[in-house]
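FAQ: What does the model actually see?

It sees only this:
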Amino acid sequence: MNIICFDLEGPISPQDNAYEVIGLTEDGDKIFEVISRYDDILTLEGRRGYEPGDTLKLIVPFLLYHNLSEQDIREVSKTAKIVPGVKETVSSLKERGWKVFIISTSYSQHAVNIGAQIGIPETDIACTKLPLDMYYKTLDRADLKLVEDIRTRILEELYPPEDEEKIVEVLDNFFFKGLSGTRLGQIFREVTVIGGIRKVEAMDSFVKDEPLENVIAVGDSITDFKMLKKVRDGGGLAVAFNGNEYSIPYASIGLASTDQRFLLPLIDAFENRGKTGVAEVLRQINEPGIDYPSIPSVPADLTDLTDLTDLTDLKDAVKKGKIPPPVYSYLEGADERKIGEVIKIHKKYRTLVRGEAGKLG
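And it is asked to produce this:
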């Protein structure tokens, strides 16, 4: 059985739902950017018990402070777009017998909504549970004075998020000391974000006894690198789709694209001939090679390589300049120079597809 596990925010939908939700509040975007940077710092230093993506846990006190609800999350989710080609890609995979899963840090109110739009049921989605409305019933409003104080400090002392040492000092004191012993602190500890190693655990629960040689993982950010690494090291295909500097070094393949259907040639080759087939397809696409950081045009024989006629219109659109060409990169064994060049290209596409959300880790 062939299995593919998609991250949601980036590969499936450009919206960063939590960023948009907290953005409903005054200066919420600034608060989120500082906390997101804090998340990156703790992840990169390997803080024990901390996983990438725990930003969605860290912002919960601020959601409660501003009286945001689960319905607010759903309303923001309704505005989310789907990356072009995702519905067609998922449909094609299911028709060919693939099992398709979503593994996302996203709150369940968002992840389930997006999954329903592209034909992936809730049972095939691993995401972050946030019973926000229930928390209000037991919350001690006096605790929220702590949030008001730290919110002021973030805006006055930590934004823009450049002084990493001070960010860690101030936010460590708040999250891991100041909240200790409060009901808000208990709520904070209860939230379990599906990121980092928890994405790996979710993937393991979906894959079960299936060998990783039959698995594809698609991600784009710091929350995905452990999942990508496990799949790549296990013989599967790890794809960084418009990835950032945290995900690309752990991927087998980089795909910079504005349309998810350009993933299909890789899937087709992997299904038929494994990683060897993927490498061969990329050689045919890229030879005599990509002169980084220039962007190649789609090769004339792309459709012939895959026999996927639904790519024909895409290829024509690229030729006519209506959409940017996809950029495929083979990353296993890549040196630092190539990794750096691929990151530059993906950054352009990431910004094009995700807008402001693309700058988050």
